[in-house]
Amino acid sequence: MLQIKIQLNSVYSRKWPASNGINSSKMVKHFNYTGCMAPVFTPFSRQSFLVNYEMIPKYADYMVTSGIKGVLVNGSAGEGLTMSIAERKSVLEAWMSEAKRCKLAVMVQIGGIALKEAKELAKHAESQGVSALLCLPDLFYKPTNSTGLAKYLKFISDAAPSTPLFYYHIPCYTSVHMDMVDFTNKAIELVPTFAGVKYTHNNLQEANQLLQIRSDLSVFVGNEQTLAGQRALGIDSCIVVAANCFPDYVQAIYSNIESGNVNEALKLQNNLNATLHLIETTVGGFTQGLKALMELIAHIDMGLARPPQNEVTREAAQALWKEICSKKLLPPLKK
Q1: Is 62 a catalytic residue?
Q2: Residues forming a β-bridge with 73
Q3: Cα–Cα distance for residue pair 167/194, rounded to 1 Å
Q4: In Å, how far are 50, 64, 281 from 313, measured between CA atoms?
Q5: Residue 234's pLDDT band (boundaries 50, 70, 90)?
Q6: Which residue, among 268, 276, 309, 314, has the nearest Cα to 295 in the 3D structure?
Q7: What is the pLDDT of residues 70-120, one digit of tens each?
Q8: How far apart are CA 212 and CA 114, in angstroms?
Q9: Burial letters for 69-82: b for 16+ Cβ neighbours within 10 Å, e otherwise?
C-alpha cells in the first residue's frame, strides 16, 4: 500500500510575536497535522437507524491499516446534524476509546446547532481529550461579517479553552459567504484557541492566502476533486470523504506531487474525479454513495444514510461498484 509521510504533532502552546500588536503573553493552542484526515461516516442500523457502535472498532482498524492517522467525527459525512446531542457525545466517546488504542488524532464537529448546545458539545469534547474542535456557524442566525463570526467562535472557545478550534468553511451548505482572509485575521485577534480553517470550497487562491497569514495556523482543504492542485500550492493537509473508500488514491495524489511526478498525480486525480462523478450521478450524492460502498470495499456495514438523505440500498451499491470495476476507473496502484 502506497503511503505518504504523515507528521502528527501533539497540541502545544506558543506566544504571539510582539510585532503583531497582540498581547504576547497570551498563550494560543495549535494542532499540527499534515497529510490526510478522514471524515468518518457514522454507522447506523439498517432497520432502526440507531447508531451501530459495534462497527467503530473495525472502522478504526481499517483507518490505521489504510495509513490514515486522524479522523473527523460527527462532520457532514458523519451526519452529525441528524443526531441528538446524546448521540453525538456517545459517538465521540466510542471513537476516543478506539483512538487511544490505535493512536489516532481525533477532530470533532460541534457546531451547526443552538449555541448553548454547541458549547455543551465543545466542553464535552475537551473533557474527552480530543485533538481539535471543528465548528460550523449558526445555520439560521447566520453571521454577516468577519467580526460576528469570530465572536461566535469566541463563545465556543470559552467553553473549551484548552482545545484548538477550527472554523468549518463550507458555503455551499451554510450559505455563509465570507472573505476567509479577513475572517482569519479577525479570529486571530478575538479567539484565543483559533487554530485554522477546514476549507471546503474550490477557491484555491484564497486557501493558499490563508497559509501566508501565520505559519502556525493550519488549513485543511475538503475538496477531493482538486487534491493535486492543493498540494502543488503548498497545502499539505486535507479532510476528504474519499479517504474512507479510496485512501490509497488520495494519499498517492499527494505523494506524487511531493516527489515531482506531476503527470502521475494528474492521472490519479482524473481517475478519482471520474469515479466520484459516476457515484454522484448514479445515486444522487457521492457522500451517500461512498458510505454505501464501504461494505463492499472495507467490509464494514455502515447502514443507510439517515432521512431525508438519499437511500442507497445494498443492491444499488453492488450495481454501482460493478460499474466502477467494469470501467476500470480505479486501477490498482503500483506498490
Answers
A1: no
A2: 108
A3: 8
A4: 17, 27, 15
A5: very high
A6: 314
A7: 999 999 999 999 999 999 999 999 999 999 999 999 999 999 999 999 999
A8: 33
A9: bbbbbbbbbbbbbb
- What DSSP letter does each residue of 144-206 carry, written as one string? -SHHHHHHHHHHHHHHSTTS-EEEEE-HHHH-----HHHHHHHHHHH-TTEEEEEE-SS-HHH
Q: Single out the catalytic residue among 198, 199, 254, 291.
A: 198
Eight-state DSSP code of residue 242: H
Counting the structural domains of the chain, the total is 1
C-alpha cell at 123: 466542553
Give the model's pLDDT for residue 333: 86
- Find the Cα–Cα–Cα–Cα dihedral 220, 225, 231, 235, rounded to 10°: -20
The confidence band for 32, taking pLDDT boundaries of 50, 70 and 90, is confident
**Distance between first and last Cα of the chain:** 6
Contact between residue 139 and residue 109 where contact means Cβ atoms under 8 Å apart: no
The answer to the question of whether 324 is labelled as a binding residue is: no
Residue pair 106/139 in contact by the 8 Å Cβ criterion: no
DSSP annotation of 58 reads H
CATH of the domain at 171: 3.20.20.70
Quick check: is 109 in a domain? yes
Domain presence at residue 242 = yes
Task: Check if 168 is active-site.
Answer: yes
For cell 451501530, what's the residue? 52
Q: Look up the domain containing 136 and give its range.
A: 35-261
The cell for 180 is 476567509
Distance CA 95, CA 100 (A): 9
